[in-house]
Each structure stands twice: as C-alpha cells, then as structure tokens.
Amino acid sequence: MPSQTVLLTCIKTITTLINHKDKLKRSDKTLQAIQRVGQAVNLAVAKFVTVGEAIANENHELKEEMSVACIEAKRAGETIAQLTDAASLDHPEPDSHITIFTDKTGVVKAARLLLSSVTKVLVLADRIVIKQIITSRNKVLATMEQLEKVSSFQEFVQIFSQFGNEMVEFAHLTGDRQNDLKDEKKKARMAASRAVLEKCTMMLLTASKTCLRHPDCESARINKDGVFHQMRLALEQVIEIVTDSRSNGEDELASISIYSGIRYSELKLLEGLRENLYFLPKENLSTMLEIILEHTEDFTDSAYTSHEHREHILELSKQAKMELEQLVSVWMQAQNQKTTDLMEDLQVAILKMCQCMNELKRELHSAATSLAADLLKYHTDHMVLKALKITGVEGNLEAIAEYTCKLSEQKEQLVEMCRLLRHVSGTEPLEVTCIHAEDTFQVTGPQIISAAETLALHPSSKIAKENLEVFCEAWESQLSDMSTLLREINDVFEGRRGEKRVYLSLPRPGKHNANLKALKPVRLDTEEQAKIAKLGLELHLLTSDVDSETEKWEDQENKIVQHVQGMSSMIFATEGTKLASAFHSFSDQLHDDGKPLLLLEAEKLIPVCQQLQITAKASVQGKSATFTKVDACIQKTRSVMTLLRQLLPLCCTLLRKVS
C-alpha cells in the first residue's frame, strides 16, 4: 500500500526519539525536528487511511473491520501530531497539556496504537488481495472450460478475447503479489508459474486453432489438452503460493537438494564446534547424511555420469559414512569422559566431517556442470527440431517417427541434466529455476511431438505449421536460458554471487533474451500494461483471421496472397504499398458492382501504412513518449489488419466470379 514505507520509517524515528536515554533539551532545533516527525507521521497516516477507506468501500464484507482500523490509525496519527506540536512543546500549559517532554507514555501509547491499527489494515488488505487473486483465477478457469468446448472459430475468437483480458488482470494481480513476497524461494516459484501461464497463452491459441481446423485429428486434440492441463497446474501453484499451502502434502525434508542438505549439516556441525560440543544433534545429522547419500544415487545411477565421476562420488560417500561413525563414536565417549583430549578429538572429527562433505560437494558440482556444458554445446544447433519442421511439411510420417524418437532421447538427457543441476544449484531461487527448466523440457517435448505429427498428417495446414513453431520456440528459449543458469550456478559455487543478487536465469514473464542487454527497461503502470497486452492479443487474433482467409484461396501464388502473408509476418512498410497496388491491378479485371467497393476499401490501405511507417521511424525519449509510440503503432497495425480481414473475403468472392 502507498505510504506504508514512509509511515514505518516515521514510527521508527518516534521510537528512537522516545527511547533516547538522555533528557530532551527544548532547543529550537529539537522542537522543529520533533514537529517535523509528528507532521510527517500524521500526513503518512492520512494517506494510508485514504487508501484503506477506498479498499473498504470496494469490499463490503470487510468494510466494518477496515473502517474501525482506519479510524484507530487516524486517531493515533492526530494524537502524535498534537503531542509533538512545536507551540505546545515550547509553551506548555501547566497540568493541562501532555507533551513528549512531560510524559513519554502518551507518545508510546499512540505509537503502539498506530502500529496495531496499521497492522490490522495491512492484514485485511492482504486478505482482500488474496481473495482478488483467487476470484481472478476462478474466472480464468471458467473461461478456459468454455474455450475447451467451442466448435467454431468465430465463437473461439470471441471467448479468447475475454480470456485474454482475464489473463492480463490475473498477471497484474500476481505480479504485484510477487513483488511483495519476501521469501526468495516463493518469489522464484511465483515467477516460474507466471512464466508458464504467459507462454501457454500463446500455445493455447495456436493449439486450439489447429484443433478447430482439424477436429478429427487425435494428435491435435492431445496437443491442445496438454496445454490446458499445464495451465491448470500453473494456476493451482500460484494459489498454493498465495495462500501458503501445499495441496500435495510434499515432504520438504525428502525433497531437499544435496547442497541444501550439506549446508544444513555443516551449519549444525560448526554450531556445535563453536557453542556446545556436548549437544550435537547426532540423530538429525545421521538422518540428513542418509538423505544426502540417497540423493547422490541420482548421480551414480545416471547413464550420463562419467565413470570417473561415478567412482569418486561412491568413494566420497563411503568416506562420509565412516567420518560420521567416527564423529558419533567420539561424541559418545565425550559424554562420559569430559577430558581435554576427547574434546580435541571431537573437534578434529567435526572438521574432518566438514572437509569430506566439501569434497563431495565439489565432485558433484563438477559432474553436473560438465555434463550440462557438454549437452548444451551438443544440442545448440537444434537439428532435431529443424528436421521435424521439414519432414512435417513434407508429410513424411516415417521420418517424423524417427525424429520424434531422437527428440525423446534429447528430452531425457536434458531432464536428467536439470535434475543434477538442481542438486548443486547453491541457492533456493536457482534450485526453483532448475525445477522449472526440468518441467518445461518434460512437458514441451511430447507437445512438440504431437504438433509435428499433426503437421505431417496435414502438411499444407498453415496453422499446424505455426503451432509447431510455437512449441519449438519454447524449447529453444528454455535451452538458451540453460546457458545463463549454468553460468550463475558456477558463480555461486565460486563465491562470485551472493544470495540477494538478481538472477538473469530466473523465469520472467515477457523476457526476451536476445534484447536483454540492449534494452533499457521502462516500467509501465497497470493501466498501460493492460492496454498494451489487450491490444497485442487483439492484433494476434486479427492476424489469425487474416491467415485463415488467405488459406481459403486456391491459388497460394496469387500476388495478393503473397503480400498479405508478408504483412501478416510484420513486414508492413513495403508490403502494404505493394498490396494496395496488387488490389488495383486486380480491380482492372472486374466489371461488376464489386469493383467500386474494392477500390474504396483498398484506397484506405495506403495512408494507414504510410502513417504506420512514419510513426515507427519517429525517434522518442522517455516513458510517456515511448508508450504513446508503441500504442499508436499497435493501433495503426490493428487498423491495417482489420482492413485486410474485410478485403480478403471480398477479393476471394470476386476472384471466383472472374475465374
């Protein structure tokens, strides 16, 4: 909420003031300083209360509680202002006016009331935010159910437009919530879920269109169902994070990574070494070591771990067991005989145990990162994806089967790589990123296969080809992100990155890696983001409509079709002018009533394309000007695509008449 930070800072200042050990002197400087603090607190409270009251008016079920808390906060703020008023402090009336000089208790009481009431307002506001997110999620789910059942493209476009608006609202609510989260692991999990939802929105569009175009195609249905399932899982994870609950009852201890387990063990050992050697938690250490060694089997059982790494890991695991047995043995003796020699032996046993665990950690890190580096280098050319696209367009089902097997093998390798990297990630946010990457490869692989099979069955289908492209891009994007993730894991291991640093590999909705360093970020407010996102979705739907119209033309080599396809691919400046010329050439073949209508609509195309070109080339600076330019470009692009959507069916009809 606004003013919250200022308010808490002011309260801290008051607390410092009233807790000062020395008696306050009534100098002009002191009086003015006290009054400024009091006024700042009162002003911040007033702003805070205004927001709280607005929230109360919009949420009737909590209005009474919120109003009471706001009244208490306002009263406390006014009291603090009165107690710190310079006139009263400088010339207090005897026995009639309590000030900070005469009685600190009044200020303490007012400050406590203020803290209490502010806390109530924040808790109530938090409950409202959680409710808003859950309500937004429910709206998204309801619209998704409608999208699953649609049978016509027109109906789909209408419902998807509504779905887009609801997803934008959900993205804003969860984005604000993500920024408010203090737990880095929860923040990373929220970012991962939101990234999945953003990618899936585009996947849902192309997968659903493909299913509508080819309703009897089983692979298209499987592809679409996979996207819906993935979105539902991501929505549920967001709610788990927001409500701080886990629906699957996950055992946190069993799911801990090797690094986290080793870090916990070392902390306990060093704590015992520093504080009290007699109270080492040996049961906890034994359990933790057992879990750590169980997880090392992920490395030793992996087909992708080298023989050398496997042997070293097994040897160090065996040594760790022996060191723990020795540590427990010395500890048991020390319980009975508290001699200096035994204390020294216990210290040595602890240090040897820590050293062994560090060696194991280094070996695991080397095994995971060397495997990752090799796999990323090997798969960087995306040859399998390229082959699937080519053989799909050729309709070669036999070749598709061959390359889907290769993609499945690649998927297994990358999933194993992510699993091993997670164990050595070093921080909780990076651990979450590894899990997110593993899930992405696990899910996207089969979706690429079903999309490729659909294209092979319908090789001339433009939407099936576009659908395969979307899933391949998701795969390529995740593979690219893995290089950044690997570099950051190495940075953490070598001590070049702290816990609180920003990780570039963390999933972020709207992230475009190619432009990450070149672009200077501009923060849009909620209304601006909503407007741009809505326009973007509408533009994509218009593009889909135009693509659908071009597919209806029997002659795909027709100049009109070619220029429209060029514009649909975002090459507006030259293609728009050429298309207008093509419309004029076509009109020369016409002799019926359709010719004037065609020319009338075609004439509108040239000025709109020219305006778009001028706007796009205009140089701007600053957030407001940038937003205005982007908004104008999208609006003009939408106008062009709307014109095309009207012109294409008209041309198609007129072409049949003259053929």
UniProtKB/TrEMBL annotation:
SUPFAM superfamilies: alpha-catenin/vinculin-like. GO terms for cellular component: cytoplasm. It comes from the Eukaryota. It is found in: Cytoplasm. InterPro entries: Alpha-catenin/vinculin-like_sf, CTNNAL1, Vinculin/catenin. GO terms for molecular function: actin filament binding. Its main location: cytoplasm. One of its GO terms (biological process) is cell adhesion. This is Alpha-catulin. It comes from Dromaius novaehollandiae (Emu).
